Structures are given as C-alpha cells and as structure tokens.
TrEMBL record:
Residue ranges of domain DUF8128 in the record: 17-325
Entry protein name: DUF8128 domain-containing protein
Segments of this protein annotated with the region Disordered: 332-354
Organism, scientific name: Haladaptatus pallidirubidus
Pfam families linked: DUF8128
The organism's taxonomic lineage, starting at the top: Archaea, Methanobacteriati, Methanobacteriota, Stenosarchaea group, Halobacteria
Length: 354
C-alpha cells in the first residue's frame, strides 16, 4: 500500500442515464507545444494569475479549476476559470504558452456512458498545512518532473485494467481546484500558530510547547533546513487547493483498481524532511463525487500550497516527457503544416477561436 493511500477501500458506483456530466460553463483546453511546457513556466503562470492585491479587505478571489484527463486514448490538459475572467484567463494562457493550441470547449467533465461505474477520492495533507510538501527548490527535485512517472502509470494501469477484462481502457480525470489566498496567509487562524512562529521555533529562537508537530530537535540540520524553507515559503504567493480524482469504465473491478492507482500516483511528492505527504481518502459516495467534480464545486478539504508546490502538479509536460498518449501540438504557430495531416485539421491551426 502506498504511503499516499490509507487502507480504506475504494467503492465503485454504477451511474444511470440521469447522471450530470456537464457544467454550464465553457473550459479552456491546451494542446502543449513541446517547448512551451515545464514546471518553471507553470510557476511563472501561477504567479501571474495570483492578484497582487489579494486582498486588503479579506475578500478572496473565486476558485478556478485545472484538470488532467485521460479519455482512454489521449491525455489532455484544461482549465476552467470563472465566467467573469474567462477572456483574461485565456489571454494569460496564450501569453505564457505562445506556441501551444489554446481554445474554448464545452465543459464536459469526462465521457460517461449509461451503466458505467465510477470511483475516486479526495486528497488531504498528512500534517498541518504549514509543513511544506515536496517543492521545486528542494535538492534532488530541481530536474525531476513527476509527470514522467505519474502520467505513464495512469495510462499503463488504465490499459491493463481494461485489457485484463477484454474491455475498453478505464478513463480518468484529476481535478485541481485552486483559489488565491489572502495576502496575510502566513498568520494562520485565530489563536493558532503562524508560519513565522514555526520558523523561529525550528531555528531555536524560542519553543512552542503546544505544537505537537515539532517533535524534531531544534538543533538538528533537518530542523534548520526546514526553517529556511519556511522562511522562503512565507515570501511566496499561495493558493488554497482542493484535489480530487475520478475513474470511469464499464468494469467495476477495473475502475476500483485504477482509482486506487491514480490516488497513489504522486508518491514522489513525499517530503522526507518534513514527513509531509498527500493522503487520498477514497470516496464512499462516488456518484456524489462525480456530480461535485462536474459542477467544479468548491467543497471539501482545503490544502495550502505555494506556486512552487502546486506547479509540479499542474503544468504542461515539457518535451522530455515521452508518453505517446500526450495530446501535443507538433509545430509552432505560423509554421507551415502539410495539407491533410492531423495538424492541418483546423484544431491546431485555427486562430480565430475566441
């Protein structure tokens, strides 16, 4: 059993024809050009969509969604902003990913047939939200893109799960809801420890006697390193984040197995210094989970992640991620494409799609 999953069983529910698989809004689908992707670009993008004025009054920005979808044939990436800033959000994506194909689509969650089974889960953090999960700036993670393993495992398991029963591949979607925090996110809630106090505690300035999380000796190298990370983290833009995933297919056992595999897919996010990790709670009501995800509802357990922590989860894969099922754009905008090729279908070359 992965350290990211608890021992709770995944349950699969069969959907009827009345199941809702569509929100009323449009979404933005991105077909990444090979040189447009990467974690560092995503960090810059998340910084750009975090309003610098967020916010002096305590009023928070509305949540948005990013989704990684495997439809049984291809892996695609899409974003769903709120209706008021749809065009601004679209422009931001096109500016940051100039050679990728960025366009509007209907906001279907994932293809679900009558009688299909669904299973999934919701993600939480193992420890208090002040403890950072694996970050882009940590030693050993700088050049490590988790997508090579994560996306490959999702596809491999989906194909195997379907092939073992002679059925189609299991389909899946990972949904990341994110919302900019307030400017003073480091202060914590009323009468709770804040990030600065935790930093001082780890660096031996003073001791927080009632902070159960800090059992590590303050004078150890690990404590000093964690304290330094917390100091950098406090200066970063942060997001309230919810992550959930759903697997869909016509074989109950295969769907349950794939949902568990997706939930365990981000094992590389374990932070050995802080012992912070994702824990995936299998949903006991997959039907409700499917409806919640289709509506992109802001409901569930919130985590706090900075730009350096959320970007490795939500980014466009760079050229060195060699997974055949990635739905990529092969040419830069403006480059000539042979008539009759897949790239000339209008999906990539159509510029007037706003």
């Amino acid at each position: 059993m992965s350290r990211l999953s608890r021992s709770a069983e995944y349950s699969a529910a069969q959907l009827g024809i009345e199941s809702n698989n569509q929100a009323s809004d449009e979404l933005i689908r991105v077909r990444p050009f090979k040189d447009d992707g990467g974690i560092d670009t995503a960090i810059e993008w998340f910084e750009s969509v975090h309003p610098s004025h967020s916010d002096l009054s305590g009023k928070r920005s509305v949540p948005r969604a990013a989704e990684i979808v495997y439809d049984g044939e291809q892996i695609s990436f899409r974003y769903l902003p709120c209706s008021d800033d749809f065009h601004w959000f679209l422009t931001r994506l096109r500016h940051k990913y100039p050679d990728s194909d960025v366009r509007r689509e209907e906001a279907d969650l994932i293809h679900i047939d009558e009688g299909d089974y669904v299973a999934g889960g919701e993600w939480t953090l193992r420890k208090h939200r002040w403890w950072p999960i694996r970050r882009r700036d940590l030693e050993g993670f700088r050049e490590d893109d988790p997508y090579e393993t994560v996306l490959g495992d999702i596809v491999d398991d989906a194909v195997k799960a379907g092939g073992a029963t002679g059925r189609e591949s299991v389909r899946s979607v990972i949904q990341v809801m994110f919302r900019p925090t307030t400017r003073n996110w480091q202060t914590g809630r009323l009468l709770t420890t804040n990030l600065t106090e935790l930093y001082y505690h780890l660096n031996g300035v003073y001791t927080i006697h009632n902070l159960a999380e800090t059992k590590r000796e303050k004078e150890t190298a690990d404590a000093t390193e964690i304290g330094n990370v917390l100091d950098r983290r406090a200066k970063e833009k942060a997001f309230d984040v919810m992550i959930r995933h759903l697997s869909v297919g016509d074989d109950k056992k295969a769907v349950k197995h794939h949902a568990e595999a997706v939930g365990a897919s981000f094992a590389s996010y374990y932070n050995s210094k802080t012992e912070q990790a994702f824990i995936v709670e299998p949903s006991s009501s997959p039907n409700t989970l499917a409806e919640t995800m289709a509506r992109r509802e802001w409901s569930g357990e919130k985590m706090l992640l900075t730009s350096l922590e959320i970007a490795p989860i939500v980014h466009l894969p760079p050229a060195d991620i060699s997974i055949a099922q990635l739905d990529r754009r092969q040419t830069k905008r403006g480059e000539e494409v042979p008539v009759g090729s897949h790239e000339h279908s209008g999906y990539i070359t159509g510029e007037k799609d706003v």
